[in-house]
Amino acid sequence: MTNPHRETNLYFKHILIGNSTQALVSSFLYGIPLFGNASHKPIPYSFVEPDVDLSDILVENKKNVFTNLGGSKVSFGIQKLELWNIMVHRLSVMGLCPMFGEYAFNFWDHMSEILHEKRFSLVVKGRVVHISFENMILFDYPVYQNGELTFLVNDYFKLSRVSDLKADYFQCAPTSVVDEICYENFIFKEGNTHYCCTKSIVSGPNLNTWEFSQTSIRLKMEVPFYWDVDKKIKLEVYNREKTPILNILYDDFEELITMRALDSELS
Q1: Does any domain span residue 1?
Q2: Rounded to two decimals, what is the model's pTM?
Q3: Per-residue pLDDT of the chain (267 residues; tens, 9 = 90+)
Q4: Measured between alpha carbons, how far is 228 from 219 in angstroms, rounded to an integer?
Q5: How far is CA 202 from CA 97, 174, 244, in A?
Q6: How many whole angstroms separate alpha carbon 121 and alpha carbon 43?
Q7: Rounded-to-integer distance, Cα 187 and Cα 219, Å
Q8: Are residues 122 and 184 in the same domain?
């Protein structure tokens, strides 16, 4: 017999399984409860396209404008992480992301069983919550290559000997056939200190190798900084963030919001 103090049973007609900003937007648009891994949220300096209209979800698509090394402007939309945080807050208030961030459960490892039984169980603060459903939409799931996760990686470097930087954005040619290393760079300032966020795509096994370590990335980045930015600038390893790259059912925000692409999954 189920212990009502330790176990809870919840039933939903529809649920979403996903972690992406698009999944959260879909949950908000359709009023469908969402379950996922909160640790797979977007990392900074990933953007929505600048021309996407987000007014239907009551969000302003803030423009982020950077200057490249040639002096021209490069425009992006709102950061996906900022939109993700807005959506999580709204869904929490609406009760559409129950216990989100309070459980650790790898849905992908149990997906066949979940689809067959139409139920799964979560452990939340020492209590068991049984979730059953009629229809599940698998909105996104991690990208695997040769059985290993692929990650979007942000390496942060503290910059010293910085005088007057006119450019705060530049791209680099990929340095690997398989992984894209240092392909995009954003310079920003916090207080009186300048930092650089260097973006890469790295397959799981390579994360623990010297070639793809943060120190190795710093050495690679010293070359474009010396030749293209300012010869006096020095880079110091500061921090690293990573998140799995996701296969997303509907990646295009305009298709998702304006054209209501998810209608076909609910018919």
Answers
A1: no
A2: 0.93
A3: 556 568 999 999 999 999 999 999 999 999 999 999 999 999 999 999 999 999 999 999 999 999 999 999 999 999 999 999 999 999 999 999 999 999 999 898 899 999 999 999 999 999 999 999 999 999 999 988 888 899 999 999 999 999 878 899 999 876 555 678 899 999 999 999 999 999 999 998 899 899 999 999 999 999 999 999 999 999 999 999 999 999 999 999 999 999 999 998 887
A4: 15
A5: 30, 12, 10
A6: 28
A7: 17
A8: no
Alpha-carbon distance of 22 to 231, in angstroms, equals 41
- For the chain, the C-alpha Rg in angstroms (whole number) is 21
Total domains in the chain come to 2
Are residues 130 and 26 part of one domain? Answer: yes
C-alpha distances out from residue 222 to 123, 155, 166, 195, Å: 46, 13, 18, 13
Q: Which domain holds residue 137?
A: 7-142+247-266
Same domain for 59 and 126, yes or no, is: yes
**In this structure, are 108 and 204 located in the same domain?**
no
Tokens of 12: 């939903």
In a domain, 2, yes or no: no
